[in-house]
Design goal:
Keywords: Cytoplasm, Iron, Metal-binding, Nucleus, Oxidoreductase
CATH architecture: Sandwich
GO molecular function: metal ion binding; oxidoreductase activity
Main location: cytoplasm
Distance between the termini: 40 Å
Number of domains: 1
CATH topology: Jelly Rolls
Pfam families: 2OG-FeII_Oxy (PF03171), DIOX_N (PF14226)
Family: Belongs to the iron/ascorbate-dependent oxidoreductase family.
Shape: globular
Largest sheet: 8 strands, mixed
Low-confidence stretches: none
Number of strands: 14
Length: 339
């Protein structure tokens, strides 16, 4: 497989990138605007959500609801995922891509729901432009999978993903309360307590000689309920907010959380830029319902607003198949299930 990492290391793009990696933006799209404002996504103190006083917890729940409604993104501090776990996860993830291609080849060319998949771009079979990104995707829950190498990767992956699920579960309780529902509503309705679907995605963005021409990932929204993102300290994530792109510079030791299409509280467009100086690594865990679960608008919310549902019910598995088999293009996948 001809990956971006291999392309960079071969020296074939020392001064310029191949034409198939040149990303053309739409000049009529307001998403080309870049904000110079000091605006940034809200910050949520996770410890106050789980261990604060009733008043503190109520305030945090209100803040989560506001962040979901206005941004669809927020940073989480004091989340309880140990720094040693996060650091080791970063190290092990990067080490996976430092193996030879022969060592990784068993995971290449796999299908969407194969346990482990290693590849490049988004979906080279349908991509109009290739993206400056290599990836590792692992289905880690309800059935845990992990690459055999590098040594120790499986153990730290399992620990990090377990902690990530715990954070997601508590955040979903807060989101349920912010919507005026029972705390356990989302977890119970979506069958998350025992059989939630969790997908780990490690993104590798090697340094690019013409970063202004390439794109790590184009504007898109995520499938599922929540995505929890950890980065290696390099900027690249941008969120579309109020007609402009806002660069996210996470606080030290924080995690970035965004709302997915299946929450649709406000699933927001975001994109990944590349840089010319260093390799950026981001580790995302996507949290969704069981693959066979049919997701429909919450009847309680539809009745409260006294309006018909905006989306038809669809199995989570079918939605993933729809998204992954099409070019990554904004929120176009969500429009396919709009009534």
């Amino acid at each position: 497989m001809f990956t971006v990492k291999r392309l960079v290391e071969s020296g074939n793009c020392y001064q310029s990138i191949p034409l198939e990696y040149v990303f053309e933006t739409n000049p009529n799209d307001d998403c080309t605007n870049i904000t110079d404002a000091a605006d940034t996504i809200p910050t949520i103190d996770f410890s106050l959500l789980t261990s604060g006083s009733p008043e503190q917890r109520s305030n945090v729940i209100q803040s989560i609801g506001k962040a979901c409604l206005e941004w669809g993104f927020f940073m989480v501090i004091n989340h309880g995922v140990a720094k040693t776990v996060r650091d080791e996860m970063q190290r092990a993830s990067k080490s996976f891509f430092e193996q030879t291609e022969e060592q990784m080849q068993e995971y290449a060319g796999k299908k969407l729901f194969d346990p482990i998949r290693w590849g490049t771009s988004f979906n080279r079979a349908v991509d109009n432009t290739f993206f400056w990104r290599d990836y590792l995707k692992v289905h880690v829950h309800p059935h845990f999978n992990a690459p055999q190498n590098p040594p120790g990767f499986s153990e730290i992956l399992q620990e990090y993903c377990k902690r990530s699920r715990e954070v997601a579960g508590e955040l979903l309780k807060g989101i349920s309360k912010s919507l005026g529902l029972e705390e356990s509503y989302i977890n119970k309705t979506m069958d998350l307590e025992s059989s939630s679907h969790q997908l780990l995605v490690v993104n590798l963005y090697p340094p690019c000689p013409q970063p202004e021409l390439a794109m790590g990932l184009p504007p898109h929204s995520d499938h599922g309920l929540l995505t929890i993102l950890m980065q290696n300290g390099l900027q690249g994530l941008q969120v579309h907010h109020n007609g402009s792109w806002v660069s996210i510079d996470p606080l030290p030791d924080s995690l970035v959380v965004n709302i997915g299409d299946h929450m649709e509280y406000k699933s927001v467009l975001h994109r990944a830029l590349v840089n010319g100086g260093a390799t950026r690594v981001s580790i995302a865990t996507a949290h969704g319902p069981p693959l066979q679960k049919v997701v429909v608008p919450a009847p309680e919310l539809v009745h409260r607003e006294n309006r018909p549902p905006a989306y038809r019910g669809i199995k989570y598995k079918e939605y993933l198949e729809l998204q992954q088999s099409s070019p990554l293009d904004g929120k176009s996948c969500l429009t396919h299930v709009r009534i």
